[in-house]
Amino acid sequence: MEQSDWELVRQCKSGDRQAFRELVERYQRKTVAIAFGIVHDREDALEVAQEAFAKAFTSIQKFKEEASFYTWLYRITVNLAIDRQRQKNRQPLLDRDDQGEGEGGGIEAMPDSADTDPFEKVKDKELGERIREALDELTPAHKAVILLREVEGLSYEEISDVLQCSRGTVMSRLHYARKKLQSRLRDDL
Amino acid sequence: MIACAHAQRLLPLLYDGELESPLRRELSRHVTDCSVCTRTVALLNRSQELLCQTIDDHIDDVDFSGFWQGVEAKLSQPPPFWRTRVSGWRESWLAFWSWRTPVWATAMAVIVLAAVQFLLPPSPQEQVTKSLVSENNQAQIESLSTSNPVLVWNEPTHHATVIWVGDESMEEQR
Of B85 and A56, which is predicted with more confidence? Predict the structure, then answer.
């Protein structure tokens, strides 16, 4: 039978790395997805997610069991991803161009598949590009809100817990982010 | 019966499952009968679909086989040397202050200038000037010692008294 997050967290608190590995496997995909939505680079997203898990394990004693483990983990991830994005934005453009945009997986690089219709591939690539542009126009806080809601399916309450802001702020950020996304994707909607 | 304009504002809440039951039911009924609101919900749905699809397409390609090893490697890293820590703090400090720096610098400069202006005691010269002005145009020179010639000139039209102390290189007005 699958253990609950609570049980695994308790085991982690007594230093059980195997229990932590279970939590990592449970949330690795979601964590990378959140990080990817903010940093737009696969390698960076993986790095951020691994760092978030490492930080979660080292601070697990501080984790109060009033909140759920994943909202706490997502908070760490969002903060690290925002930091990473800020650091990247501070780098000169030349350096940024060198960083795996093509092969490493910028958001516009769609997966290759031999049986994909080339026209569909172009359309997908354009769509990915428009989504990237729409996300780029958002502040990290707005990005985080829309990703946590639309991709992770968190409730407003959970998002406000992750981002440490009010429910009203979540609603207004989400409204703004959706409008921005919809205006960019007008032709595809 | 819920008005369409009001319904439009509530639709994101309905879509996100954030509405309580009675209102949710009423709004759902409205959406069924209203083509405009049906389209808004469809838009919300489609934009979510596209965003999820784009993110998923990328995450599907990620190889998670070495993920745990990566986490373990980070866990086994020794705590950073103090220099690394300092540079880490510096990095995050710089990242945080990037665009705010000029604003904060200006604000701090104004605060420091205001503090200097209001908190420091006035200089002796300012005190003399103040006393000269405040005491109804009356001034008193306590002592004056000079080997140069001194000229006192009263100008009643401007209520001013000019005292010239002669000097070989320049004339000084007091």
Answer: A56
Q: Note down the domain range covering A183.
A: 109-189
Q: Which of B71, B91, B92 to mutate to test the interface with A (most CBs of A within 10 A)?
A: B71
| A146–B59 C-beta distance less than 8 A | no
Per residue in B66-96, pLDDT (tens digit) is: 999 999 999 887 766 666 677 667 666 665 5
How much is the average pLDDT of B18-28? 91
Token output for B125: 């010269």
> Do A172 and A84 fall into the same domain?
no
CATH number at residue A181: 1.10.10.10
Look up residue B99 and give its DSSP letter: T
* Same domain membership, residue A40 and residue A6: yes
A85 and A140 Cβ atoms separated by less than 8 Å: yes
Distance from CA of A129 to the nearest CA of B (A): 10
To the nearest whole Å, the CA of B63 is away from the closest chain A CA by: 10
Single out the residue in A49, A80, A106 at which a domain terminates. Answer: A106
CA B99 to chain centre: 9
pLDDT of residue B91: 64
User: Which chain A residues have a beta carbon less than 8 Å from that of B92?
Assistant: 83
- C-alpha distances out from residue B112 to A147, B15, B120, Å: 43, 52, 11
Contacting residues of A for B62, CB less than 8 Å apart: 29, 32, 42, 45-46
Q: Letter for the amino acid at A161? A: D
pTM of the model: 0.65
CB contact under 8 A, A150 and B54: no
Domain containing residue A26: CATH number: 1.10.1740.10
The count of structural domains within chain A is: 2
Could you read off the pLDDT of B33-62 as tens digits, one per residue?
999 999 999 999 988 998 998 899 889 988
